[in-house]
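Most newcomers find our protein records easier to grasp once they have seen one. Sequence and backbone structure share a record, each on its own labelled line. Nothing more is needed to start thinking about how sequence determines fold. As an example, a complete record with its sequence and its structure tokens follows.
=====
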Amino acid sequence: MKEVIDFVVKGIIKNKYILLAPLAIILLIASMMMINSTQTGTTQKELQDTFNDRKETVNLLISKILNKKRNIGLSEDAQQGLDSLLSQEEYLKQISSKLDEGVLDISFENIEYIKEYEAYEEYISIPYNNKDILNIEQQKVETLAKHNLSYTEQQTPYKTALFTKQLFQLFFSPITAFLFLLIFSYKYLSDRENRTFDFFKVNSLSNTAIYYGYLIPFLLLVLVYIFIASFFSLLPTLVTGNLNTIHYPIEMAVQSETMMVPVWKWLLFLPIGWGIFVSLLLVLSICLFKQRISFGVLLSMVAIPLVIGYIISTQFGFYMVNPIHLIVSYETHLLPTHRFMIYQLWMFIVLIIFLAASYPVFNSKGSAFKAPVLNSTRKQYHPKSKWKLLQFEHVKKKRKSHVLFTLILLFGIIGGTYTFVNQQYQNLPKTSLKVIEDLQNIIIEQLRHWKVVELEFDIETEIMLSTSQEESDEEMTEFIPVENPYTVRIENLEQGYTALEGLKKEVGSRHFPGKFREAMNTLHSSDDLPPSRWNVTDLATAEQQRIMDEKDITPWPIGNQWISNYNVPSTAIDNEHYNLLKASQERNTKYGKSGLFSVYKYFNWNMMLLVLGVFVLLLWTSISEEQRPNSSMNFLTTKPISLRSIYVSKWAYNGMIAYGLLLLSGGTVFLLSLLIGGFGEPQYPILVYAAENTKDDLFYSGVENAYFFFESLLVLILKCGALIMAQIFFLNSLFSLIGRWLKNHYATVIVTLLVGFAGYFLANQYISVNNMFLNPFVYFDTWNIVDGWKSIAANSSKVNFINGCIILLVSGFLLFFMGLLSGRKRV
């Protein structure tokens, strides 16, 4: 075994590319430090805004209470409340002064401010802080004070342990684990192809010694990578003397409760968990390689248990025996408690068991040392009677592993989309809790306003009452007290706050979505506005709810409103309007985990643009490849094949492989989504915009002068699929034509991508130009074409799905025939 280990280690050390890994780590850290250092100040600005708002509120309350004191006097409790407000004002002034100077060490002042606020609540009933959020803030600031820490930048840190945590989440991620598996597989397969195993066999080394000899160096390499990545990630924190920031508390929502988790738990869990996970992958992989399987089969057999583990985690929650929690779904289940230590210890024991179980596999004879099939002895190409050129193109790409690599990449793109969608669904409790707290903050702000108004009314009433009593002594008149008209409004707001507080306890339960939507509909009803003043969002929300009730469709869990594109944050007229629209959009973001919902999000994000780019970059072939001598050229020159035939065959091959892979990968991921979240609601009503009134059953909003109607989700998805087929057809013809004109394949790829990106950019930039609907690149914005928004942007009903398909297909045929008819040269 020692001989094999020495051989493999020397091969790794002598490889000139081995130094690229630490260099890449250093460059990434340096780049992130530069980027973060230029974007710092977010936390400071948030704190400034928070405490400036509190100071403004305290000043307002002080002025109102002083006014009351001057006019009608104060009770003992009210006076004590005023004294507390004056103390709060002093602490807020100190905090604001520090923040203005860039000093974030405000723990002492903040703790004292919170204590004064708690005392204030006992005297005067005008709340202006969300007590739950204030309790969370108190926990955080007490932790900071305990460890002698100040507030620090959380979104873009660059010299604290939060920066190290950010780097750890990059270096110890599922992506780097997959790259490690690829490196290991490449080394193993290349050595097997070079008959290295036969060399060891000749030197009387046992199977066990050889396979453990290959495995152990890579396990050591995992440890070395963890050490290097950890060291360089911790270096900025160590150099700046901020190592104590490992105790910095980070808020984490666990169901309906927010807990404080110190940074050091991530720094401890991530490298250890990642190392155990990669080691398990390597042990499983080398056991499979021992069975002489191909790399594609290996990836499938490794992916299946991972997918099963992920499905179990999403469907049934956390299980101590599930290794998938080493890299995903670990935060809320493990970090808030010390259970992660027990879990990692158990996973390490599982790794030891795997290593022991691999012994009989390595020791078995089997066909492990069968002479590898070299390229020279591969099965020769024997074309069938039909489609010979297509078969030839397929063999060329297959032997270059382009098909396998592109399939993996395509699965990664679509599977990543699904995983992101599903993770967002898994984060619903956290999202819901944030939505509820934001709404409570709005209610508290409204309560503060109306209670101040109520106080002013009471002051005026008391003054009028005292004046009336003075007059009554002279004229014997009686003053009739007037009931405060703001009391009912305040009571309704308090009831809404209480309802939201009760809703928090339901977060994560099976009945929560229904209760959440009911509460949101109650709080955000448009009944106080006449229908003539309803915008598209109001009209669409009401109509969508009617359709769902009529067809008994289960709504998506979060969002009681369908936020139209007229109300997205990018349409804001000022910063305040932007914050309002952004908060509304976040409260009504759509979530789900069904197959149809995942496909909806895939199209909504327009991921197909990236997929088509992958096709052009890696998979498609062009006639440019045959313009210079190579193995293909030598084969083709012996055959009486015209350039036109080669052109057609390559065009047909590109289309077939694109449609085939797209259907295969998309279908597989859809089936996976089907297993996890079900089929979904095919009749779910989706808003579709219309540039003008083209039929009688359109809805109309006079506020935004907009027409719209509803179409089922399944119909829109099918339309997206048809439009994508037309996009591939057009792009394939464009690629083939450029390949016909250019002599270098790589130039063909680059020019095609540049033309595609430039066309897409210009089509969107000048969408309102006359006859722009004839531009095929307009229709690459898939979902916005299907849902009609592109017609609104272009202010033309001619920009639609039907015209898009026709124009893409006609343009594709024209480009194809241009390449087909240009020249009759034979190869």
In short: Residues 62 and 82 are 7 Å apart (CA to CA). The chain has four domains: 2-38+156-378, 42-146, 558-591, 595-821. Residues 558-591 form one domain. The beta strands are 249-254, 257-262, 685-690, 699-701, 706-712.
